[in-house]
Design goal:
The complex is a heterodimer of chains A (305) and B (222).
Chain A: E1 41-45, E2 53-59, E3 81-87, E4 89-98, H1 99-103, H2 112-135, E5 141-142, H3 151-163, E6 171-174, H4 176-187, H5 192-195, H6 197-202, E7 210-214, E8 217-221, E9 227-228, E10 233-239, E11 244-249, E12 260-262, E13 268-274, E14 279-292, E15 298-304
Parallel strand pairs in A: 1-11, 5-15, 6-8
Antiparallel strand pairs in A: 2-3, 4-14, 6-10, 7-8, 9-10, 10-15, 11-14, 12-13, 13-14
Chain B: H1 2-8, E1 32-36, E2 41-44, E3 49-52, E4 55-58, H2 73-81, E5 85-87, E6 101-106, E7 109-114, E8 119-122, E9 125-128, H3 132-147, H4 156-174, H5 181-205, H6 214-217
Antiparallel strand pairs in B: 1-4, 1-5, 2-3, 6-7, 8-9
Helix pairs in contact in B: 4-5
The chains are: A alpha+beta (305), B alpha+beta (222).
């Protein structure tokens, strides 16, 4: 037996490795459930408004009548007013693909459409990041620095919101470690809490983002929740509708250029070819801004990271 | 052989390319200013000191009033209206040119953090050190904010309010099964926090700074 044709002898005719047809997504926190959540107040579209800033007026309507003696006149009561501003700004992401990278692609990893669609995810993640930057800035705080978040901290935040006359759907945005600390604490709960179905559901493994509703509170996690106390802690928070407002702007799409795609929720992707360098540029843009609206409607939860 | 090679070709030093950089494998993070609200104090550290709890004003367009052109005046006005004060970088030249703020290049852009934090990278895993040294320096920074009167001392009324809140918390935690280690530990911690708050309350009532001499703190309490 000689001259058999074997794989090891076909060095020039075989590849060291095949490129699998299935493209996998690298693990990352892709939670975007906060984007447009009902607990965030949408304050409108600023396109055509002559400004990139919207000033939101607020008035107090809780003034009570008071007893007035016979023949006496009541004195005037001033109106309580306040305001806050939301500035809309461009948020963007750009990718440039070379012609050679595209033409040698065998698994659509440099497909222009794929990266254009990814801009929606990029916009949503940016939205979460901007809101996450706000939840650590409420005056009221619960938790102890470098100590794990527990069920009592959640109750504390809930009580603080109750005491502040907050109403509406509460949301608790936590760093993943804060949430798992909460889960650990929930395991040790006794009494009525241990028998509630949501308590059991909260302990289950789940994807990043929406974790479920417990005690009437929507729990969301994001790795974009910032640090506090020089990195020792995470600055998550709980808030209800009215604590944070946001606004956006619709972009003008120049259809004559035939290179813009209007994606969902006012995200526009523009594609530009540079024939000289043979590159394709994909630029996604989203105009929005968010700001703290009413401080008393939120509680920062600052606990160990 | 080596000498022959040397004769034929110019030898080049084997080193990193001039443009090669170590980039921190962490997402970019924006510049910020620390802020403080007169109602935000917390018990922290090994001995339980009442110190300011700082907030963060993120300086990025679209966030909390920062204008598209980068101007932060609306953000500052909004913060001041709500009682927050901004800790300016130039107030802390002893910490460096940029005060308490520093930045390194990351894979997606600049990563901003405080001078009290230290990122380390093993392979592609980034860990933010929570080592005692950084935290001790941060706590000293907080103490200094009170010593230099950059931040006003907490009022007697605030400390009294904090004691009331902590006592409510202690009652709630006391109703739990204290034979469980985690419950017991949390209960003891809150009890210690109340004790420390009472010390601060007493000092504040006497018109003395809530900052206790570090030598006193070294003596175990409780």
């Amino acid at each position: 037996m000689a001259n058999e044709i074997v794989y090891s002898g076909l060095g020039d005719l075989r590849l060291a490795e095949d490129l699998n047809r299935a493209l996998e997504i690298l693990v990352a926190d892709l939670s975007t459930a906060l984007w447009g959540h009902e607990a965030l107040m949408y304050k409108g579209d600023l396109s055509g408004s002559a400004s990139s800033v919207t000033k939101v007026g607020q008035i107090g309507v809780a003034d009570r009548m008071a007893a007035v003696a016979e023949l006496a006149s009541p004195s005037n009561t001033a109106i309580t007013d306040d305001s806050y501003q939301i500035t809309v700004s461009r948020q963007a992401l750009q990718r440039t693909l070379s012609g050679l990278a595209i033409l040698t692609d065998s698994i659509n990893s440099t497909q222009v459409g794929l990266w254009a669609q990814q801009m929606i995810m990029a916009a949503a993640l940016r939205f979460v990041e901007v809101v996450a930057a706000l939840v650590g800035g409420f005056t009221a705080t619960v938790g102890t620095t470098t100590v794990d978040l527990d069920v009592d901290n959640v109750f504390e935040a809930q009580f603080a919101l109750t005491n502040a006359n907050a109403s509406g759907q509460p949301v608790c945005l936590l760093y993943p470690q804060q949430f798992t600390d909460f889960q650990s604490s929930l395991r040790a709960e006794t009494g009525v809490i241990q028998f509630q179905t949501p308590s059991a559901e909260m302990l289950m493994f789940g994807s990043p983002g929406y974790k479920g509703r417990w005690n009437g509170i929507d729990f969301l996690t994001s790795s974009l929740v910032p640090t506090a106390n020089a990195g020792a802690d995470s600055a998550g928070g709980m808030f209800v509708r009215g604590a944070i407002g946001w606004a956006d702007a619709t972009q003008t799409v120049q259809s004559a250029l035939n290179n813009a795609i209007l994606m969902a929720r006012k995200v526009v992707v523009r594609i530009d070819e540079d024939i000289s360098a043979d590159t394709v540029k994909i630029v996604g843009s989203y105009y929005f801004g968010a700001a703290q609206a009413q401080d008393s409607l939120g509680v920062s939860m600052i606990t160990d990271r | 052989m080596p000498s022959q090679i040397q004769d034929q070709f110019a030898r080049v030093p084997i080193s990193r390319r001039a443009n090669a950089k170590n980039l921190l494998n962490a997402p970019s993070s924006p510049p910020f200013r620390w802020t403080h609200h007169p109602e935000r104090f917390h018990i922290c550290g090994e001995h339980g000191e009442l110190l300011p709890q700082l907030g963060k004003m993120v300086l990025e367009p679209g966030v909390n009033g920062v204008h598209a052109n980068g101007s932060d005046h609306l953000a500052r006005v909004g913060a001041a209206k709500n009682g927050w004060q901004v800790l300016e970088l130039q107030s802390f030249p002893e910490l460096g040119d940029d005060g308490y703020l520093t930045a390194v290049e990351g894979r997606e852009g600049l990563v901003h953090f405080s001078v009290f934090e230290t990122p380390t990278q093993q392979g592609n895993v980034v860990r933010w050190s929570k080592q005692a040294e950084g935290q001790a320096r941060y706590m000293e920074f907080l103490r200094d904010l009170l010593r230099r009167r950059i931040i006003a001392e907490p009022t007697v009324e605030l400390i009294e309010f904090m004691i009331g809140m902590k006592e409510s918390e202690l009652n709630r935690r006391g109703a739990k099964d204290l034979t469980k280690i985690a419950n017991r530990r949390a209960y003891d911690l809150v009890a210690k926090q109340i004790e420390r708050l009472r010390v601060a309350f007493e000092r504040s009532q006497r018109g003395v700074s809530v900052l206790e001499p570090q030598t006193d703190l070294a003596v175990p309490h409780g």
